[in-house]
Amino acid sequence: MDLNAWFQKGLTADEYIKSMKQNKEEMHTIYEHFSLTSEDKDQLETLRTQNLRAIVLTEDWCGDALLNNPILMRIAEAAGMELRFVLRDQNLELMDQYLTNGTSRAIPIYIFLNEEGREVGVWGPRAPEVQALVMERRAALPAKEAEDFQEKQMALYKGLAASYQKDTAIWRMVANSIMTTLIK
Q1: Distance (Å, rounded) from C-alpha 66 to C-alpha 22?
Q2: CATH of the domain spanning 3-182
């Protein structure tokens, strides 16, 4: 399937949000509280004439999607960009074309398309600064063989999700990273 066909297959933002079983309120909270600066909006306004679109490879259970998707939605509004949400687990054929480090089905992945349906950029699954933060916190985990590894790992993920929902500096890192992919 070509990228235009994948785009057409995807859910609109409203359809995706209505279908969400997990992280719906958390994602909505970020969406409601995140705003772009006037400078961001001016830069994104210049993209309107390009009629960009994006395929959003995602799942509602994903903590990174919880953070990144509402920020992308605000960016898309300012850029006049239509989004279509494609669920990773039901669409591995597409996902496997966008593996992180060639091996990982990490999400979300944003595939930006021009009017003709050609890929003009790919972003995800995390802003570089957020990836560094995650790696720093993972480095503090005990060895995988340790009795308390699972417990500590779950606490790490819970702590990250809490940070993702409240830390506006993290929101800004994500917005800047996505906009860097779009504005060249």
Answers
A1: 9
A2: 3.40.30.10
Query: Which residue ranges make up each domain of the chain?
Result: 3-182
What is the β-pairing status of strands 82-87 and 119-123?
A: unpaired
State which amino acid sits at residue 166: K
* Cβ-count burial 60-99 (b if 16+ within 10 Å, e if not): bebbbbbbbbbbbbbbbebbebebbbbbbeebeebbeebe
What digits encode the pLDDT tens for the residues 99-135?
A: 999 999 999 999 999 999 999 999 999 999 999 999 9
Statement: the pTM of the whole predicted model exceeds 0.90:
yes
Please give the Cα distance from 112 to 81 (Å, whole number). 9
